[in-house]
Amino acid sequence: MVSPKSLTLPLSAEDVASLRAGDIILLNGPLVTGRDKVHKYLVEKRPQKTEIPFELAGSVLYHCGPIMRKTDTGYNVVAAGPTTSIRVEMYEADVIRQYGLRGIMGKGGMGENTLRAMQEAGCVYLHTVGGAAAYLADRIKKTLNVWLLEEFGATEAMWLFEVESFPAIVTMDAHGKSMHKEIEDLSFGKFKELMNR
Fold this sequence. Notes:
The chain has helices at 13-18, 36-44, 89-99, 112-121, 133-138, 149-152, 179-195, and strands spanning 5-8, 24-33, 60-62, 67-71, 74-79, 103-106, 124-127, 140-147, 158-172.
């Protein structure tokens, strides 16, 4: 069994360059979330980096709409499973280039535009476990900050979490390899074989 690589956030260019599709990793440090509304806002409104209350350069942006519980001292995470990444394909390449992201995390992979942006900018796609929202919430140790909470609500806001040993697999790397594309091509080839029988 391959041992997972432990990485500290934010990621450096060297961290990203060392990763290959198929690598198993554990993330530690500040992790940012963002779903559909955040992506649309970042691309259409183009907020200045100084308007965002935390640093995005070097960050991993997690496609997640967490379930949050408000407490006397802040917010606790109840569930934090990944959402389907292809939903934001139309925005992701711009977001990577504009804000200097080093990683995108979600489920299901992304398309050609995002893969090209990842090669150009030095960024990876990380696939994490769907259906394990409570387990992943346990990997979040603290809520550090939130942005656009009043505008978008808790699920669509951009959260900053402190994570520990948050698991993922590199499925699209900065060298142009996409395991999602490989599986799609293989499946299509098998489909054609079946249809030609």
